[in-house]
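Lab notebook: predicted structure, single chain.

Context: the supervisor wants predicted structures on file for every construct in the current expression panel, including those that have not yet been purified. This is the next one on the list. No modifications to the sequence; it matches the entry in the shared construct table.
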Amino acid sequence: MATGKEHWNVTEPWLDLRCSLGEGPFFEAETNSLRFVDIKEKKIHSVSIIQGQSSLRTQQLDICPTVTANLDGVDPRERILVGVKYGLAILDRVTGRYEMLASFNDPHNERLRSNDGAADPRGDFWLGTMTDFGYGEFQPEGSLFRFRGDRKEEVVENLNIPNSVGWSPDKATMYYTHSKAHQIFTLDYDITSGAVSNQRLFYQHPTFGEPDGFRIDTEGNLWTAVFGEGRVLRISPGGDITGEISLPTRNISCVQFAGTELFITSAADDEGDDESKQLGGALFRVDVGMTGLELFEFKLP
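Prediction complete. Output recorded below exactly as produced.
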């Protein structure tokens, strides 16, 4: 790595779970735990960041969960918001049952599933769609939707894999990733109306890996997983790479802050070297000495 850029080297997993597609890590402050999903296996995991493996709880769904968020005014031990194949659902964590809140399409388009997303400063939820598994190559048929309560709006169209969404510390800038194009975009964000405008390119990844899930720290740096390259990059608000985390498996999918630690999800790797294959789907953690912005909560209609 170039001189002057910070570097962290992670060699061992924190939890060796062998997820097929670990994604969507979310720090649940109320329980000091990390929630994350396994999209392909249709599971939601929760684990105490103090107790580790012994505290792992898993809920099995009959539909793929892709991301979770807290609900405004609701104890997350009782109910949370979940992005699922067809749209947004409310999950009862006590019974394990869920109820659809809003769908992308009616009737459902079986070719598509949700991907990553996040609540915005107003309490709306942004959620991307993409070609589901089993339908061949990913096509530019995905979109980035905004859900305001149970109402939806298609904001950005013709995307292959829309990914993480986040906001700058001053809440004036919104970021989202277009993974297959190796790009991260910014838009001006109006916190009063929730409107976005002036989309422009923030970062173009120069190599074969795909920018995947990201989080933003309190200084405005964007920490993005790079799927296929076994690393996480820290990108400054000006678009410069200022730090890198190296990991022992290639398919790094997303990150989440808890204090100054960064928790990192990954996916299975069937084509890498022996170590990458063995550790694909594991969960990693590393202290990077910086804290992340808290994620926003979704406001129910």
